[in-house]
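Troubleshooting log. The previous structure file for this entry was overwritten by mistake, so regenerating from the original sequence record. Sequence copied from the archived sheet and checked twice against the printout by T.R.
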Amino acid sequence: MHPITKIIAVVIISMVSGAATGADPQSPYCNIILNHLNPCLPYILQGEVKPAKVCCDGVLGLTQYTNAKGGQQNICDCVKAAAILMGAPVDNFSKISSLPKSCGLSVTLPPISSGTDCSQVK
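Regenerated output below.
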């Protein structure tokens, strides 16, 4: 991963930590979500053809949160907030929902786009 990408990711994780805590204790926190997705930034934003194993491990780590009450919505909210804080178009993060398939996993991640209403994500 490019050094500037790592720096940006650390800053974003710090800025949005706890932003979407949810009422359910099993709901994922933004820092956890972003820590799991951080290794995927080269695939998501830099056009890598296939996600790295460390990225797929992170996606697998999100499995426990994806089925939790509000988990998909929190993932959506956190990713969209991170995109805004990065000053990146939200649509640049649209590859997130394809990560499980690209990694050969059966977990589902929410669609991310400028038109996605995270409050409607189930």
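The CA atoms of residues 43 and 72 lie 21 Å apart. Archived copy saved in two places this time.
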